[in-house]
Amino acid sequence: MKIRYTIATLAASSLVTHATTLIQYGFDFTSGTVASQNGGVVTDDSGNAHHGGVKFNTPVYSSNIPTGTQNVTGVGSLDVSGGHHTIASTQNDSDIFSISEMVANGGLTVEVWANQSNSGNGGNAKIIAIGGAFDIEMDSTGISTFVNSSGNGVASFTNALADRAGTWMHVAAVIDNFVVDGGSHDFDLKLYINGTLQDSVAYNDVTPSFALGRQIGIGSQAHSGSGDFRYDGLIYEPRISYGAVAPADFTIVVPEPASSVFLGLGGLALILRRRK
Question: Is-annotated flag, keyword Signal (predicted)?
């Protein structure tokens, strides 16, 4: 079934400039591999102790980070290319996320820097997978985001972005205007690339499910049988926050004046900053 896209304006949005960070992973390339850093533990720099660890094959660290960025939580990126390499949270999604807190904060934001090695494995390559409940994916057809609702994928779209192998991109998926509607919820799903809104679609009478009993995966889904969903490339600065984070407060600062084209793909330097 085709979904009709609409471009949302900030005036009609509940986007916030400050939100509650739930998870933020930094990577230290000087450690060589994930297994050699802190006993194989990837530290959650949000202060919430939602730490991660190796799942399936061990990823390595890379010194390749987005050009012109400041180090925020790590001095390197995570290299998950060439195999089923995954970082998984030590807790399940239902132990980290709460629908009531999403309502109280107006939504949820997932953001990450990604540098694709190739076109992936042909489909649904998961850069970040919140237990199969809320994902950011990339393959040769573009970037997409997906929301699971009570076992059924009801909210998704794909940005018509060609394969950008070897190019760093900041990607953010935002659940905005998340409100109670009877026994379910209404929300807007938005996709940003390099701080620029690409797509937005409104959904009514659905409830995202975070009760699947699965871990958060960086580089693929973190449950058994997820080899077909592995991402191939570099990952930097993944962050998950309660609230619909405004582009001005992503882990990216968009140069002024903001351009309608994909900032950064044309060679503009993009500066990271730490959210206050």
Answer: yes
